[in-house]
Specification:
CATH class of the largest domain in chain A: Mainly Alpha
Strand content of chain A: 5-15%
Number of helices of chain A: 9
Oligomer: homodimer
Largest interface: A-B, 41 and 42 residues
Shape of chain A: globular
Radius of gyration of chain A: 18 Å
Number of domains of chain A: 2
Helix content of chain A: 40-55%
Order of helices and strands of chain A: EHEHEEHHHHHHH
Largest sheet of chain A: 4 strands, mixed
Number of strands of chain A: 4
Structural class of chain A: alpha+beta
Distance between the termini of chain A: 46 Å
CATH architecture of the largest domain in chain A: Up-down Bundle
Chain lengths: ~240, ~240
């Protein structure tokens, strides 16, 4: 199966959680927006396709994945679809539900990080909601990051198999997602994270373990990995970062 | 199977999406917080159980569901678990993924509605973030509600079976969730919704169809249905409601 990933070309965003899964599995996939325009490339063509992609089951927003005739949207839903096919989730119903539950909790955290620089509206620029962003980010750093990351640290502490991976003895897509989220938080809030991180040694070790996997390391070093930037979910605005 | 639902006693909140599914199916379930304290009742006991509920797979937040020895959290994940067991989702993988995709999109909308009255922090009261809430709610009403509800209207328009139900010819848990969301929006923003609703006749018809189902009608008329209130996800603050 050759998968088609449809997502914005210039950001990691929510699409990155899918890229990491596809890369770790060595799956055959193409990012359609990165093709020449004559082959459907470009963000505009993707947006136009959003509504045509599947007349009966249209995605609400990118990312969406085409797998043969199927069109699937919602990042966590796509990961749930890919998980068994890419060997990135346990086979039992319990393993699938638990891994998905973790993924949805990561998605909640990612939403909160996004909204910290866009607390009023996605239709406004950051500079149009800067005082509100400052206020929200203070609460994010002081309250929400410790709550979410403290939770994942606890999950690792209790996980079978020595706490290497969130959902037990084997790497799952949720581990890739936690890696990405920690990497993003470090980019966005280097001062705050330097202070907070020592409380989460298991998450830091998981991050390093994921980064060292051969396919992930090759991907991160490649031009396929879009650099972090200030159009993305994780943004570094020095005025928001407080130790 | 007798299910145990664990959620705040005083609000509909995200737990309501589970209550509606359990009620529609006539499932045997108990809301543990509503039991006498000697039997584990009370919100405090629920919070204490959150972390003990399953040592290996702790929920991050309510709601969570106990089904035998299983403990499952994240509303959409619980619905996905219950769907086939309660006859509230199609049998094929495609039907399950599509219904879940719709549910996750409804969850995104519900998050945005919540954040419209809490744009800065969940740890602050509404009155501590009122100017920001006013600003965010204007964008919610002008931009986000039309985008989300316009999308669901389009899904119904294209759905097989005459557009009665979101995921095809048969009621699914996503229909119950869309009903609840419309009901909540009407409560929160009566003026704005009166103006917007004519654009979404299929959603309004779906709402009425769900409300008329015998078990749902009985539930809505019962004391098990917590009234809408201002501690909930959908809140009516007249100063935020604009036609």
């Amino acid at each position: 199966m050759r998968y088609e990933l449809h997502y914005w070309s210039g950001i990691q965003g929510r699409g990155e959680y899918l890229r990491l899964a596809l890369e770790e599995a060595g799956a055959a996939y193409v990012e359609v927006v990165r093709l020449p325009e004559s082959q459907g490339g470009g963000d505009g063509a993707m947006l136009a396709r959003l509504d045509e992609a599947d007349e009966r089951q249209p995605p609400f927003a990118p990312p969406f994945l085409k797998a043969g005739k199927r069109v699937i949207a919602q990042t966590a839903n796509i990961l749930q679809f890919l998980g068994p096919r890419l060997g990135l989730v346990g086979a039992s119903e319990n393993a699938r539900l638990w891994t998905h539950q973790l993924q949805l909790t990561i998605a909640d955290l990612v939403n909160e990080v996004h909204d910290a620089h866009h607390p009023i509206a996605v239709s406004l620029y950051y500079h149009e909601q800067k005082p509100e962003a400052k206020r929200r980010t203070q609460h994010l750093i002081a309250e929400r990051l410790p709550k979410f990351l403290g939770y994942f640290e606890r999950v690792l502490e209790r996980a079978p198999g020595g706490g290497k991976w969130l959902a037990g003895g084997k790497l799952s897509y949720a581990d890739l997602s936690l890696f990405q989220t920690l990497a993003g938080l470090r980019y966005a809030y280097p001062k705050a994270m330097a202070k907070l991180e020592p409380a989460w040694p298991r998450i830091v070790a998981l991050h390093d373990r994921v980064a060292a996997r051969p396919r992930i390391a090759a991907y991160l070093a490649s031009s396929r990995r879009v650099p972090f930037n200030e159009h993305d979910v994780f943004r570094h605005y020095p005025e928001l970062d407080r130790a």
